[in-house]
Amino acid sequence: MAAPLFGTPGPLIEMCESVAVYGADGGVSSDRNGTLSEAEETHMTTQVPCLWVGIDASKAHHWWVAIDDTGTTVWSRKVGNDEAAILAGLSEILALAREVRWAVDLTGTAPALLLALLADHGQRVVYVPGRTVNRMAGAYRGEAKTDARDAYIIAETARLRRDFAPVEAPTNLGADLALLTTHRSDLIADRVRLLNRLHDVLTGISPALEAAFDYADHKGALVLLTGYQTPATLRRCGQARLTRWLAARGVRHAETVAATALTAAHAQHIQLPGQDTAAGITADLATQVLALDERLKQLDRQISDAFHTHPQATVIESMPGIGPILGAEFLVTAGDLASYPDAGHLASAAGLVPVAKDSGRRTGNLHRPQRYSRRLRRVFHLSAQTSIIRDGPNRTYYLKKRAQGHKHIPAVIALARRRVDVLWALLRDDRPFTTSPPARTPAATAA
């Protein structure tokens, strides 16, 4: 009987099955369907000192991988995003070790139930950014991309690094402000999209009428488009009738708006193709923008009311350039200020501290950081830019930087960095901003 061409197939098949089950990186692949290995069953019977649990979170389910201090997987399973399933998995893992450290790669709405249950059971959770997980994946063998492998890498990264930021359970106020400010950002994006579409469609009717107004900031011009969109209809209406029509709808300076619109209408007498259809679309878009503006006004009032319930809202709002909206954004993006040892760490989180990129003899190279909170940087940048409108210490510092040869944006960034120190000190001392320095206490003078 002839021997097999490639030798005995049995061991090769068994080896492939082993790699398919455990993966090339030592983690556990999703082909296991939640079954326990012999090593996991051994760990189930004995407690270990500490376990690190990495969670690859998603909307429908999460994959949990628990590893010991050697990086060996002792528990791996898909857990549904359901309270009963999460509590069952939690009880199993807590029975395996005297101490459990958790790590997640998401902190949004998908893992909200999971994080709330972990916080309710007194578990400490850290946040491992997705960028870090992606880069750490290259340090392990294999090219597979599975939920189990990602969870294993999250757990390993948390085991090797101890400097990740903890995930704190948000208060009701923090959760409310996070939802409201995110919803506001979505509505602002919708408004920008509608205005861009409005400009595009209106240009196809009358370029002169499209250029006559700044529709993003002119409510009266939007009201005009809800009734009159073409040059011909504006000319037929006339100055007096159009002025009365606008005034009846509460448009300020109705006569000026009517005169500007008629000037644009008299600049074009030809009718463009598809004008009637475009006019109906323009009226609909203008109506949507006006309705969206009303929703934004109501939402701004809701954000302002919620922001002013914060105990330090008065301190934050006392800083020139910061109102209720930016103040709420600051509370959401900065989180618990106790997590920042000093003002420098807060500035670094906002991307206002340059990072060194030195190599060999090349030293002193400072560059803009790449990893920081864009929303937090936006808060400090916008507030600094607003604060230089009026005279005061902010404008004085900005003009000083301009006199030193800095352009507008670097000067604003320098001012924003300076304002981080001021806001940090105000929140630390729980006092409002004043243009004059506070009086020194006898104890501070003696020190």
Write a compact overview of the structure shown.
It contains 20 helices and 7 strands.
Can you walk me through this structure?
The structure is a single chain. The protein has 447 residues and is an alpha/beta fold. The chain folds into 3 domains: 19-160, Ribonuclease H-like superfamily/Ribonuclease H (Nucleotidyltransferase, domain 5), CATH 3.30.420; 175-307, Helix Hairpins (Orthogonal Bundle), CATH 1.10.287; 313-435, no CATH class. The protein contains 20 helices and 7 strands. The strands form 2 sheets. Strands 3-2-1-4-5 form a 5-stranded mixed beta sheet. Strands 6-7 form a two-stranded antiparallel ribbon. It is globular and about 90 Å long. The termini are far apart. 29% of the residues are buried. Mean pLDDT is 86; it is low at 1-34.
Attribute tags:
single chain, Nucleotidyltransferase, domain 5, Helix Hairpins, two-stranded antiparallel sheet, 20 helices, Transposase, Transposase_20, Transpos_IS110, Transp_IS110-like_N
List the helices and strands and how they pair.
Elements: H1 9-22, H2 38-45, E1 48-56, E2 61-67, E3 73-80, H3 83-94, E4 97-104, H4 112-120, E5 125-127, H5 130-137, H6 147-160, H7 172-203, H8 207-212, H9 219-227, H10 231-237, H11 239-248, H12 254-265, H13 275-307, H14 313-317, H15 324-334, H16 343-349, E6 355-356, E7 366-367, H17 374-387, H18 393-403, H19 408-429, H20 442-446
Helix pairs in contact: 3-4, 5-6, 7-13, 7-15, 9-13, 10-12, 11-12, 13-15, 15-17, 16-19, 17-19, 18-19
